[in-house]
Automatic annotation (TrEMBL):
The protein, known as: BREX-3 system phosphatase PglZ
InterPro entries for this protein: Alkaline_phosphatase_core_sf
Domain of life: Bacteria
Pfam families with a match to the protein in the record: PglZ
UniProt-listed NCBIfam families: BREX_PglZ_3
Taxonomic classification: Bacteria, Bacillati, Bacillota, Clostridia, Thermoanaerobacterales
Length: 671
C-alpha cells in the first residue's frame, strides 16, 4: 500500500450509506487526511464520548440528513479497544471494525509508536517499507524513529557544531519530539562521555529554553569576534547567564550559520546592541545587531512569502505560519515614518510588498479553510488544535502532571500580532516569566458568543446551541465541564473583568484551596478594538500602552504567587477592514456584525448574499443547523462604504488563529 491510510480507508466504501462502528484506541481515524477523505466518501464522523451528546447528534442531525440522502454513512468512533459501551441499537445494526498502530507498523515497538504525532506516520511508513525488515525492540524502534522521521542520528554527533546544528534545525521546524525519544537522544549523547557541560535536559525538550540559551551566548560570540585571539572568556556571572554550558558556541560554522538569518528575522532570537557595532557592520553577524528595521522587514517578508502553506498543508503549518505573519505585521506597522526621499521610496516598496503578500495569504488561507477546517474539531485535544480543546488539554495536564491549581486567562479579542506586542513589554518588565508559545484555531464565525463560549464549554457550539445569542452562560458551561472532571463547585472559579483596575482589586480573594481551577476573561483588548480609530497601528499602540500599565504582568505575578499554573489564550483575533455597505434587511437577520451576519433561514441569507455577491455562505461546521453565517469577503466589512474599522467575525489568519501560551516562572539557573 502507498500509505498507512490505505489500510484504514479500504473499509469505507464511498456512498454506501453504512453505519460503521470503529474501535480506535490509537485515534487513527481523526487524522486530518483520513477525516477529509471520509467526508469526501459521504460519511459523517462522530466520536462517542458522551451518551447524551451522541444521542442528540444522532437523532437531531444525522437521521434527518440520512433520510434526505440514503448514501450518507455514519462512522461512530470509540477511542478504546472495544465497542461494548455503544448503545444496543447501534451494536445490532452497525458493522464493527477496529484499527491499531500494531496493525500498521507490526515491526515496531507499540510502546514507542503511541507517543508519536499522527503527522509523523507518513515518513515512518515510508521508512518501514524500505529499511525495516525485522521486528525491533524498544531502543531499536526509538533509534529508527529518530533517524528516519526526525533526521536525528545521536550516535554520529561528536562535535559542538553538530549538536548545535541538529537542535537548531529541530526547534526551528517546531516539531514535537516525544519525551521517550528525548530521553533516548540524551542517553546516547551522554553514553559517549561528551557534552557533559551542556544543559541537555533543558535545551533538547524545551524550545523556549533552547533559544534563550542561544540568545545568552550570542553576545559572547560577538565579543569574541571583535577581540579575536585576545578575547579571554569571562566567567558566566559576568554575562549574567542563567544556563550552564559552554560560553562560546560555533555560530559561524558552515552547518550552523545558514540558520542564523532566519532565527533573527523571524523573532526566535532578538538582535542586540553592541559597543563595537561599527566594526561588525557588513559582516554576516549584522543580522543579529540592532539596526535599520527596513532591512529586517524586507528579509522577513521574503521568507514569509516562501513559507505560505499550500492547499494540502496540515493545520500545524498554518499555526506556525501565523506566528511568522504576526511578526511581519508588527514590524510593518513599526517602520519609521521619517521624511526624506530615500525613506519614501522604501516605504512605497514596503507597502507594495506587504499588500501583495497579504492578498496571497488571505487567498491561500481561505482555500485551506474551505477544504480542511471541518477536520479540526475532532482532532485529539493533546495538544489542542482548536479553542474548545483547551479545557480538555488542561484536564489532561492536571491529571498527568498533578497540577493542583490551574488558571486560564482568556484575553478577549487578542490577535497573534497583538500578543507579540504584549509579550515584548512583559519580557522586558517581568524577566522571571518564560512564555511557551503555541497557537490554536478559533471557531468560525469568529464571534465572542461562539468561540469564547466554546472555550469555557470545552465542546463545539453545536452542543450549547441555545446560548449562542449571548455570553451569559459561560460560567455555567465552565462549571459543568470541570464538574464532569470530578471537581466540586467550590473548587471551580469564573471571573469576567475589565482589565483596568489592579488585578488584586478585580480578581479579589481567590479561595485558598489546594485544588482550584480558575477561568478568567479580560475584556480590555476587545474594548480597545471597538473604540480604535487608527486601524492596526492604533491597536498596536493602545495594546502596548495597556501592557505598559502593568495590569497583565501583575495579574500573572499574582496568580503565580497564589500557586497557579497559568495559561493564556484568546477567543478570536481582529483585523482592519473597509466598509462595502450595510445590508438593508430589517429584522430578518439574527445577528448584525461588521464581518459576520447570522441567519436562521437559508432563504434570508441568500437574499443578502445577492446584495453582496462576494460574501461567503459558511457551512454550519460544528454549529446548529439554524445558525447560518454570511461572512464578509476578504478584508471587507458590512458597514458604510469606505469606512475603516477594526473588527472580527470572519475568516483571516488574524481572526482565526490565536495565541495559546503557558506562562512559566523562571527560578535561578534552571529557568
Amino acid at each position: 500500500m502507498k500509505s498507512w491510510r490505505d489500510l484504514i480507508l479500504s473499509e469505507f466504501e464511498p456512498g454506501a450509506g453504512e453505519l460503521i462502528l470503529v474501535a480506535d484506541p490509537d485515534r487513527l481515524l481523526v487524522e486530518e487526511e483520513i477525516l477529509r477523505t471520509l467526508r469526501e466518501r459521504n460519511y459523517e464522523v462522530v466520536i462517542y464520548d458522551d451518551p447524551v451528546h451522541f444521542r442528540f447528534f444522532y437523532e437531531s442531525k444525522y437521521k434527518p440528513l440520512q433520510k434526505q440522502d440514503r448514501s450518507l454513512g455514519l462512522v461512530v468512533i470509540v477511542q478504546t479497544s472495544n465497542l461494548y459501551c455503544l448503545p444496543y441499537d447501534l451494536w445490532q445494526t452497525g458493522r464493527r471494525v477496529s484499527f491499531s498502530l500494531a496493525d500498521i507498523f507490526p515491526q515496531l515497538s507499540y510502546r514507542v509508536l503511541v507517543e508519536l504525532d499522527r503527522a509523523d506516520f507518513d515518513l515512518l511508513y515510508k521508512a518501514c517499507q524500505g529499511h525495516c525488515h525485522s521486528r525491533l525492540g524498544d531502543n531499536a524502534t526509538k533509534d529508527f524513529v529518530l533517524n528516519h522521521v526526525f533526521g536525528i542520528f545521536p550516535e554520529r554527533i561528536r562535535e559542538p557544531h553538530e549538536l548545535l546544528h541538529v537542535l537548531i534545525r529541530h526547534h526551528y521546524q517546531r516539531r514535537r519530539l516525544p519525551k521517550i525519544l528525548e530521553e533516548r537522544f540524551i542517553q546516547v549523547l551522554q553514553s559517549k562521555g561528551g557534552f557533559t557541560e551542556w544543559p541537555l535536559e533543558q535545551i533538547v525538550s524545551d524550545q523556549e529554553a533552547f533559544f534563550a540559551f542561544l540568545q545568552e551566548r550570542w553576545k559572547i560570540f560577538l565579543d569574541r569576534l571583535v577581540h579575536g585571539n585576545s578575547f579571554a572568556a569571562e566567567p558566566s556571572a559576568t554575562y549574567d547567564l542563567r544556563f550552564d554550558g559552554p560560553l562560546l558556541l560555533p555560530f559561524d560554522h558552515p552547518e550552523v550559520k545558514p540558520y542564523m538569518d532566519n532565527l533573527f528575522l523571524e523573532g526566535y532570537l532578538t538582535p542586540v546592541p553592541h559597543p563595537q557595532a561599527n566594526r561588525l557592520a557588513g559582516q554576516w553577524v549584522s543580522v543579529g545587531l540592532k539596526k535599520d528595521p527596513w532591512e529586517r522587514f524586507f528579509g522577513l517578508a521574503a521568507a514569509a512569502e516562501k513559507s505560505i502553506p499550500k492547499d494540502h498543508a496540515r493545520y500545524h503549518e498554518w499555526l506556525e505560519f501565523a506566528r511568522r505573519w504576526a511578526e511581519l505585521t508588527v514590524l510593518y506597522f513599526e517602520l519609521p515614518l521619517a521624511p526624506g526621499e530615500h525613506l519614501e521610496e522604501k516605504a512605497k516598496q514596503a507597502d507594495e510588498m506587504y499588500g501583495n503578500l497579504r492578498r496571497q495569504v488571505d487567498k491561500a488561507f481561505l482555500i485551506w479553510m474551505q477544504q480542511r477546517y471541518s477536520a479540526l474539531y475532532n482532532q485529539p485535544a493533546v495538544p489542542p488544535a482548536m479553542v474548545h480543546h483547551i479545557p480538555r488539554y488542561l484536564a489532561y495536564l492536571r491529571d498527568k502532571k498533578k497540577f493542583e491549581k490551574l488558571a486560564l486567562i482568556v484575553v478577549d479579542g487578542l490577535a497573534m500580532d497583538q500578543w507579540l506586542v504584549v509579550k515584548e513589554v512583559l519580557a522586558d518588565r517581568w524577566p522571571q516569566f518564560r512564555f511557551h508559545e503555541s497557537a490554536v484555531f478559533a471557531w468560525v464565525p469568529t464571534l465572542t458568543s461562539v468561540s469564547r463560549q466554546a472555550i469555557f464549554a470545552g465542546e463545539p457550539p453545536l452542543f450549547f446551541a441555545s446560548y449562542l445569542d449571548s455570553t451569559g452562560k459561560e460560567c455555567s458551561l465552565w462549571l459543568r465541564f470541570w464538574a464532569d472532571q470530578g471537581l466540586r463547585e467550590s473548587e471551580i472559579g469564573y471571573l469576567n473583568v475589565a482589565g483596568d483596575e489592579s488585578p488584586e482589586k478585580e480578581v479579589g480573594e481567590i479561595p485558598e484551596r489546594r485544588s482550584f481551577v480558575l477561568g478568567l476573561v479580560v475584556q480590555k483588548v476587545d474594548k480597545i478594538m471597538h473604540g480604535v480609530e487608527l486601524g492596526t497601528a492604533g491597536m498596536h499602540n493602545q495594546v502596548r500602552q495597556w501592557a505598559q500599565m502593568s495590569y497583565l504582568g501583575k495579574l500573572l505575578e499574582f496568580l503565580v504567587e497564589e500557586g497557579f499554573e497559568v495559561f493564556l489564550t484568546s477567543d478570536h483575533g481582529n483585523l482592519e477592514a473597509q466598509g462595502i455597505g450595510r445590508p438593508a434587511e430589517g429584522a430578518t437577520v439574527d445577528y448584525r456584525g461588521y464581518r459576520a451576519r447570522i441567519y436562521s433561514d437559508k432563504g434570508l441569507r441568500k437574499r443578502t448574499k445577492e446584495q453582496f455577491p462576494e460574501a461567503l455562505e459558511w457551512e454550519s461546521i460544528g454549529l446548529p443547523d439554524n445558525f447560518l453565517p454570511l461572512l464578509a469577503a476578504g478584508r471587507s466589512a458590512f458597514c458604510p462604504k469606505g469606512e475603516k474599522v477594526v473588527c472580527h467575525g470572519g475568516i483571516s489568519v488574524e481572526e482565526v488563529i490565536v495565541p495559546f501560551v503557558y506562562v512559566e516562572r523562571v527560578r535561578g539557573k534552571t529557568l
